[in-house]
Write a structure and sequence with these properties.
The structure is a homodimer. Chain A has a domain of 116 residues: Sandwich (Jelly Rolls). In chain A, 52% of the residues lie in helices and 21% in strands. By secondary structure, chain A is α+β, with helices and mostly antiparallel strands. The first copy, chain A, has 9 helices and 8 strands. In chain A, helix 8 crosses helix 9. The first copy, chain A, starts with a helix and ends with a helix. The mean pLDDT of chain A is 92. At the A-B interface, helix 3 and helix 5 of A face helix 3 and helix 5 of B. Chain A binds a DNA duplex through helix 9.
DNA sequence: CGAGCGCTTGATTGAGTTCAAAAATCGTGG
DNA sequence: CCACGATTTTTGAACTCAATCAAGCGCTCG
């Protein structure tokens, strides 16, 4: 699984084998079963995860005990709580595995070494953060402006692969609606597509 | 106004006067009156703005003609559409001035030169992007999980200064509620604080 | 000083929630 | 491989929070 990570990094930076070896010397590989919790809300934790295989999610639990999915991370995605990772604050959310997964667990030292050793890693990081910001921006706009149906259609168009791998009730909480409402949205969409 | 910009940059990086001079050679200063539109939704535009004085906002207009504020930018904040700036896509939103403002207008060349000339600029940029991501993360969680009242109280706690400078109806659209609803939330909060 | 904008208030409506229960699907051990 | 319990999805009915529509008030700024 480390091979996949290396492949991913070398696709996005100009790191040589030696440089990668040096930087990645401290990372850990983990196999986690579906359901395994990797990070608990309110706890401080200094790891970020790269998903080599499988699917993770980040979610909060609010005062009423309701879950809200903040982020899905399939293969080749990063997942972690930046506020905990960089600022040592209590985590904003839980992270757990939706499928059996292979992950690379990374500490702050990885970034520190990367930044000093390889300028191209910085460029990659900046690109990644920009892309991420744009996606979050769009999500905020959807949450501010779109109806339940529009949000669902946007999700379907943007993440067709996740649709098959994530239970519907989790998608509902990602969209900011209840599972019951999502079921009704889908019913209504199906009705409109038959009645043509 | 360029002086303020320089001061800000040098507080956050280790750029020397010469380095700053070189990097900032292409930037433009602008004074804009309240109400001036700097960027229009759907248009592609390759500038980002640093607010030296005053207050800008970014907002979308949805299919029903309703405005939704995505971001407020007072002194020493950046504002711009990353998807337009970096990826040359049509902008997701409008940017205009809420107060008479002094701004520094920056093109892509500024970042390109910064990244090559000064490594400390990269570190600053990464830090900035991280902080930004964390804030957007928290906003998403609020929009997913919190009621109108909770969102307003969070806003008051987080941006007490903006409360006095931004019209109430704009704050409402930032929170994802209507101005009428915000008025009622405030009335209810006032009632509860008297009846003690 | 009056026209327009922002804020408030009231009455009504509506999108989505809640609570409850049935139907469908999944997964796991025998 | 099947059966049975658990989980997920669907459906129904009542309800609720916030939106909508409409009108009036009070500033301010032109």
């Amino acid at each position: 699984m480390l091979a996949r990570f290396k492949e991913y990094i070398q696709k996005n930076t100009t790191l040589s084998d030696e440089e990668f070896g040096h930087i990645a010397s401290g990372v850990q590989q983990k196999s986690v079963k579906k359901g395994t919790v990797l990070l608990k809300q309110e706890e401080q934790h200094s790891k970020t995860f790269f998903v080599a295989k499988g699917l993770l999610r980040a979610y909060t639990i609010d005062g009423n005990g309701k879950e809200h999915v903040v982020h899905f991370a399939p293969e080749n995605y990063w997942i972690g709580d930046r506020s905990s990772f960089y600022h040592h604050e209590p985590s904003l959310f839980f992270i757990d595995a939706i499928e059996d997964s292979e992950i690379i667990s990374i500490g702050l030292d990885f970034y520190e070494r990367s930044e000093s050793v390889a300028p191209s890693f910085n460029s990659y990081l900046i690109r990644l953060l920009h892309t991420n910001s744009i996606l979050m921006q769009k999500r905020i706009i959807m949450l501010l402006a779109a109806t339940a149906e529009e949000r669902y259609l946007d999700f379907v168009a943007r993440y067709p692969d996740l649709l098959l791998r994530v239970p519907q009730w989790m998608i509902a909480t990602y969209l900011g609606i209840t599972p019951e409402s999502l079921s009704r949205v889908r019913k209504e969409l199906a009705r409109r597509n038959f009645k043509r």
